[in-house]
Amino acid sequence: MRPAFFLDRDGTVTREVGYVNHTSRLELLPRSAQAIRMARAGGYICVLVTNQAGVARGYFPESLIADVHQRLAQLLAARETRLDGIYYCPHHPSAGEPPYRSDCDCRKPRPGMLLAAARDLEIDMAASIMVGDKISDVQMGRNLGARGILVRTGYGRGEEEHQRQDWTTTPDHVAEDLLDAVTWVLEVDDPRRATGERP
Ligand SMILES: [Mg+2]
Ligand SMILES: [Zn+2]
Q1: CA of residue 56 to ligand 2 center, whole Å
Q2: Domain regions of the chain by residue span
Q3: Active-site residue identified among 8, 84, 133, 180
Q4: How far is the CA of 164 from the centre of ligand 2 (A)?
Q5: What is the mean pLDDT of each run of 10 residues along the chain (199 residues)?
Q6: Sign of the CA dihedral 170, 174, 179, 184?
Q7: Is 189 a catalytic residue?
Q8: Where are the alpha helices (DSSP H) in the chain?
Q9: Which of 51, 124, 136, 180 is deepest in the core (most CB within 10 A)?
Q10: 8 assigned to active site
């Protein structure tokens, strides 16, 4: 069993631009590739977990998600890293038609994607970290006994400044971005690990 970083996609790994309804709208945040490279070098599995209700809403076909994630893989490969797994939820509880209109177990903050990844990839949940730009991402990780980090990219800064009074959990750390989050974890978990590649 290995520890993992569970990574929200939009606003955390990639720029939050609203619905990514075309591959051309996908853009890596500047330090994401370095963050993933460092996490994997430190022994962590990196798994993307993303809600893509645009499918249920009829904004784009489910097949586009594979195209977008192929583009993401290309962008990361150009920066000499990769993800170990990608999980997405195409559902919405009230929008669209079945099968995409579904009260599913995989739509964040429900735990389905994390549980599936933990099973598929033999992840040690208690040693893992969920990173996202919404407090619901943080909450989901903490519900499963993982740590939760909020990043200030994407919706994160607004969540921190304008929603804090409504937070249902306290993040283990609030990070400037994904690289800051990974750096913090590497230092907390094993100071010796943090002596490699630096920001
Ligand atoms: Mg997000
Ligand atoms: Zn779902």
Answers
A1: 10
A2: 7-164+171-193
A3: 8
A4: 27
A5: 97 97 97 98 97 96 97 98 98 96 96 97 97 97 97 98 95 98 95 55
A6: negative
A7: no
A8: 32-41, 62-77, 112-121, 135-143, 156-162, 178-189
A9: 51
A10: yes
**Nearest ligand for residue 53 CA:** 2
CATH class of residue range 7-164+171-193: alpha beta
- β-pair type (147-151, 129-132): parallel
Provide the residues around ligand 1 (an ion) whose CB is within 5 A.
8, 10-11, 133
| Residue of 42, 56, 62 lying closest to 128 (CA atoms) | 42
Extract the tokens encoding 57: 């809403």
How many helical (H) and strand (E) elements, i.e. helices and strands, does the chain have?
Answer: 6, 6
Torsion angle (degrees, nearest 10) of CA 131, 109, 2, 133: -10
> Which two structure tokens, joined as six digits, stand for 72?
């993401």
Centroid of ligand 2 to alpha carbon of 87 (angstroms): 10
Distance 189 CA to ligand 2 centre (A): 32
Compute the C-alpha angle 10/160/25, nearest 5°: 20
pTM attached to this predicted model: 0.94
